[in-house]
């Protein structure tokens, strides 16, 4: 499979690239700066996305909202719209989005990001990622999309190759902890790329 990976050098994106390549897939990495062997492009430019996506089987959008104190949703949503338009121009149908956990339901009808105990420092980017999910749900009906939310906690760790898959609700273990390593998140995402079991919906993965 030929995969265009937008955001290839981030904590999660770099692990997706490694996992996909280890399985024999061809990965074209894209970053704004073009460092570390990646292609340079602005994810908010539909024409640039279309040019890069041409000839690929799937696109993975793995960019995070800005954490420089600026308003986080506008650039993320601009990238989301540009990627949707770019895929259509390039004739690529498969899109997998690295999402956030804040839009998961902590209780029926209550998003995690809206709970009183949600850390204020993460609220802006979590709301931006939730808006991206709604954008994809509303505007990507003609594409084969999947939005993959991680567990509440995700950090570098061990690749076990094991995980559980859920839907719109927070997925936690028997002790109530919602966690997955970035390595096993990458396993789950590449599994979804290969199988297409969750086309047209959001999933979450955790231990």
Automatic annotation (TrEMBL):
An annotated Gene Ontology molecular function: oxidoreductase activity, acting on the CH-NH group of donors, NAD or NADP as acceptor
A Pfam family: NAD_binding_10
Domain NAD(P)-binding: 7-193
Domain of life of the source: Bacteria
InterPro entries for the chain: NAD(P)-bd_dom (IPR016040), NAD(P)-bd_dom_sf (IPR036291), Polyketide_Oxido-like (IPR051606)
Start and end residues of each stretch annotated as Disordered: 23-45
Name recorded for this polypeptide: 3-beta hydroxysteroid dehydrogenase
